[in-house]
Specification:
GO terms for molecular function: pyridoxal phosphate binding; transaminase activity. InterPro entries: Aminotransferase_I/II_large (IPR004839), Ethylene_sulfur-biosynth (IPR050478), PyrdxlP-dep_Trfase (IPR015424), PyrdxlP-dep_Trfase_major (IPR015421), PyrdxlP-dep_Trfase_small (IPR015422). The structure is a single chain. The protein is of the alpha/beta class and about 475 residues long. The chain has 16 helices and 13 strands. The strands form 3 sheets. Strands 2-8-7-6-5-3-4 form a 7-stranded mixed sheet, with helices on both faces. It has a 4-stranded antiparallel sheet with strand order 9-10-13-12, covered by helices on one side. The protein has a two-stranded parallel ribbon with strand order 1-11.
């Protein structure tokens, strides 16, 4: 790695702030520094730099994971959105009779779009859980080994290098990696407000007006906008769009001749009965079905690698299919996935009730713990929670003085020093410093077990060593943060 001491790649200084004056310098390198190697071409260096800026800390985590029985001093990762709450149920189901069945077709190459038996299971599954008004066809399904592969393939076939997709912030940083790695497609952020205003009835509210403004700004920068990326539910706020909003966004895209990629990977992670998820596939009529694409993955709900694209556009489905040469799923795994998706009795009666119940329990535990931290350390933690997804969107700007992204990075590194990983807001292209994504769908024993080992209890250590302001002084309860 090549980087100046206490500076990032853009030359921004990272010396300790007045709020961090009593702490030693962090031992963590700058994740935004340029990767250098005499063995790599410029493209290889760019790939390594891009990877390093997004996933460097996960490498450290995988080399030193927390284990309750053998490594209580290892990294506790609340930055990766994985649902570990029902691993026991999935493992038990995969070991039941019928899963071990093997025939010749499973040991051979499948169709580039995936085995028909799996695509049929995906189409039936989406018809049910997306509440589609008509049965969805397996001919419109393409399966690869993950949603990142699906999105990367779509970026490749829908855009030329340098083209852009609009995407509302905050958004999953992996989208940047998927768009840039092979396709060299840019994501243009649609910046949303973090507070309620005269125009916004909710924090992080997307409107057609903001879409139009973002499109105009992109054009003034001579950017060629080819589409809109729309996560629903949203990662990281958990916001779920109404049918009316979805229709308005799709009409906007049609007026401006834009593709729309709707990421519905968290559609089964709505654990509050008062929150209603609406799939774009539930609409009676799509304004432009040939330019509307739904991507979904089984990974957030069942922990297995599958990314599915649903599109009636035969040209796009045909163009995405060759990517199976790089991102295929083995025949045996496809058969296992088919068995899971077709077992509606197990899904409806056992699995989904357990998932939602455990998500509610973990969600409540994390909120209670955050409230306890507020009392112990006498400062307010604002958070945005929509009872959907595997995460909380929390605001720690009270700990930043001045409130800058440089200070956000300093605090982030303090968590790393204490073997706790969170995702920071700047990596989600948020315009306001201080926000972090905290994933709570962690192994229940690790969240609620031995308190000295649990990741949430590590959080106070760097906080306690940070000089907190007196009530009423600068750095007190933040203005402009999302309502809890």
């Amino acid at each position: 790695m090549s980087s100046e001491s206490n500076q990032d790649a853009s030359g921004v200084n990272h010396d300790l702030s007045p709020r961090q004056h009593d702490q030693p310098p962090s031992r963590w390198q700058d994740s935004e520094a340029t990767f250098l190697s005499p063995n790599l071409a410029n493209r290889g260096i760019d790939i390594c730099t891009l990877y390093n800026s997004n996933f460097q800390d996960n490498e450290a985590y995988h080399n030193d994971k927390y284990q309750q029985s053998s490594n209580t001093l290892g990294f506790f990762n609340l930055g990766i959105s994985e649902n570990k709450l029902c691993n026991d149920l999935v493992a038990h189901r995969l070991c039941q009779s019928g899963m071990s069945y093997v025939e010749d077709i499973q040991l051979q190459y499948s169709s580039p779009r995936g085995h028909p038996f799996l695509r049929d299971a995906v189409a039936r599954f989406l018809t049910t859980f997306c509440r589609a008004p008509q049965c969805l066809s397996l001919e419109n399904v393409v399966v690869l080994n993950g949603c990142s592969a699906i999105f990367s393939a779509l970026a490749m076939v829908l855009c030329d290098p340098g083209d852009c997709f609009l995407v509302p912030t905050p958004f999953f940083s992996g989208f940047i990696f998927g768009a840039k790695l092979c396709a060299n497609v840019e994501l243009m952020p649609i910046h949303l407000e973090t507070e309620i205003t005269d125009e916004d009835t909710l924090p992080f509210q997307l409107t057609v007006g903001k879409l139009e403004q973002a499109l105009l700004e992109a054009k003034t920068q001579c950017k060629k906008v080819k589409g809109l990326l729309l996560p629903n539910p949203q990662n990281a706020t958990g916001h779920v769009y109404s049918q009316e909003s979805l229709k308005e966004f799709l009409e906007f895209a049609k007026r401006n001749d834009l593709h729309v990629v709707v990421d519905e990977v968290y559609m089964l992670s709505v654990f509050d009965d008062s929150v209603q998820f609406h799939s774009v596939l539930s609409l009676e009529r799509l304004p432009d079905p040939q330019k509307t694409y739904v991507i979904w993955s089984i990974s957030k709900d069942f922990g297995l690698g599958l990314g599915a694209l649903y599109t009636p556009n035969e040209d796009v489905a045909f163009a995405v299919s060759p990517f199976s040469y790089l991102h295929s799923i083995s025949g045996i795994v496809q058969y296992h996935l088919r068995c899971l998706l077709r077992d509606r009795d197990w899904i409806d009666r056992i699995y989904l009730p357990a998932v939602h119940s455990r998500l509610r329990t973990a969600h409540a535990y994390v909120i209670t713990t955050l409230r306890e931290l507020e009392v112990v350390h006498n400062f307010k933690i604002f958070f945005h929670s929509r009872s959907c997804g595997l995460y909380l969107w929390i605001n720690l700007k009270n700990l930043l003085e001045p409130c800058t992204f440089e200070e956000e990075l300093v605090l982030y590194r303090r968590f790393l020093d204490h073997k706790l990983i969170l995702s920071r807001g700047q990596s989600y292209l948020l315009k306001e410093p201080g926000w972090f994504r905290l994933c709570f769908a962690e192994n229940h024993q690790q969240l609620t077990g031995e308190k000295e080992a649990a990741g949430l209890i590590r959080a106070p250590r760097p906080l306690a060593r940070t000089t907190l302001p007196a009530p009423g002084t600068r750095g007190g309860a933040s203005r402009g943060a999302a309502r809890p």
